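Hello Y.,

Per our agreement to keep a running log of every chain we model this quarter, I'm adding this entry. I've kept the format consistent with earlier entries: sequence first, then predicted structure.
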Amino acid sequence: MGVGSQMANGARVGDLNHGRFLKHLDESQVGVWTVAQWLASKGYAVTVTPSSRAPTHGDWKQHADNGDLQITQRVEVKRLSREFTGRDDWPFKDKFIVCAKHAWDSAQPKPYAYVILSASMRHAGIVKGDSRDTWYVEPRTDRRYDGVRQDCYFAPLSVVAFTRIGVE
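Predicted structure for the entry above:
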């Protein structure tokens, strides 16, 4: 068998496999939409990414996707009236107020993270929701309102990431 025959045979196999791939791609869409609906029912904002079909196997790179779907993570942001640059000058000793207890307990979906900005918004303390097992509850009076006292979650500083943000 000459080189021309091998190339022709390889092209036929590539065409056959490409056809099979396109069939499987089409069949996978039911699963993608099922998972998208399930995640949406759990409260997630879901984006199903476009799926494009390469006309030939040789065109696959121009039609490769970036995943089947994406979910948007919930992030809660608060701004302090006080300045800080990191752990060393954090104004609240050894604790980080995450949120009011009822806010986390009733949240669906649970926040991925809480970001607390410094007064200048040049620095932030970040605590991820997956550190929840380290949090503890303390009652706090909210001085911004009259007569408001509520239980709040606090995190130890060991689970807080501090970072510089913003643009100079």
